[in-house]
Amino acid sequence: MGERNQSVQSIASSALDTDTIPAEFIFPKVEQPGVNTFDGPVPEIPTVDLSDPDKENRTRSIVRAAKEWGFFQVVNHGIPGHVITKLQEAGTEFFGLPQEEKEVYAKPPDAKSIEGYGTKLSKGTQSWADHLFHKIWPPSSINYQFWPQNPPSYREANEEYAKYVKEVADEVFRSISIGLGLKDHESVLKEAVGGEDLQYMMKINYYPPCPRPDLAFGVPPHTDLSALTILVPNEVPGLQVFQDDHWIDVQYIPNALVIHIGDQIQIATNGYYKSVLHRTTVDKNKVRMSWPVFLEPPGEFVVGPIPQLLSEDNPPKYKPKMFKDYAYCKLNKLPQ
Ligand code: OGA
Ligand code: NI
């Protein structure tokens, strides 16, 4: 595998009227989405109404969903529809710019951080997606060089979304922390993964139309290395989660946010909550996009099982580790 600088977007536009895709995008038969997507009655993925005035009920629903699925959608979450629409419009306009204009924000070749525009070069089969990464919170962590200047609305749209998404994150952290049943319950989990220093990494996924959606993936199966992921999709379905040995389609609910439990929460809770295995398929005719925000501990922050959770019956399953070392091992497929 050599270096590929070409975006999947431009590969896709030259494949538009064909019914083939380059071999490097074709997954082995048994892994292909056309072969192993579950096609039958499926259990319903939980949806939690965050405007439920009964706080205990709200907490209970979040805890149950996080425990049983590691994955759920939230509605009536307090982020105004226009804030989400603006975020989507700004990102969509950016990906609509000519290739040279997007390349201005390209991830520098030897950069340590993942920030910038690009396409993931996997060791194995390639993904049918381009992306843009940049931090949106806390303000001191932001590198504006990776925020598009065009469209001009981009900055305000992202700054506004960041303020609101923080509120949702705090509510989720509070609830699943209470679910652990510890004494100083409300804040213990968030503190264990970075507290107020948590970094919010925005990613825009751009999945161009694909002539053979049965053979390729937007993102192959993985768990997120974040603590928590909060995602806005567009209206084109494609996200699937793995539950009870089946890949299940996630239904698109307008204005809902998709929440994933990530690896750092699994580690901090010694496996009480589990990070969910998920993947994305692509569409034959439509562009799919999504805006996950990954809530990550600072690089030097050590995450390990919360001591109060451990006992003789519940010995530690994970080694405490700096987040940056965890990320390095995971990205390079090394043992943790
Ligand atoms: C990811 C991811 C899901 C989606 O980028 O890690 O899982 O719906 N994306 O695009
Ligand atoms: Ni993911």
UniProtKB/TrEMBL annotation:
User: What are this entry's molecular-function GO terms?
Assistant: dioxygenase activity; L-ascorbic acid binding; metal ion binding
| Essential cofactor(s) | L-ascorbate
Q: Which InterPro entries match?
A: DIOX_N, IPNS-like_FE2OG_OXY, IPNS-like_sf, Oxoglu/Fe-dep_dioxygenase_dom, Plant_2OG-oxidoreductases
* Xref: PROSITE patterns: FE2OG_OXY
User: Residue ranges of the Fe2OG dioxygenase domain?
Assistant: 197-297
According to the record, the residues making up region (Disordered) are: 37-56
Keyword Iron annotated: yes
List the keywords (alphabetical): Dioxygenase, Flavonoid biosynthesis, Iron, Metal-binding, Oxidoreductase, Vitamin C
Q: What is this protein called?
A: Oxoglutarate/iron-dependent dioxygenase
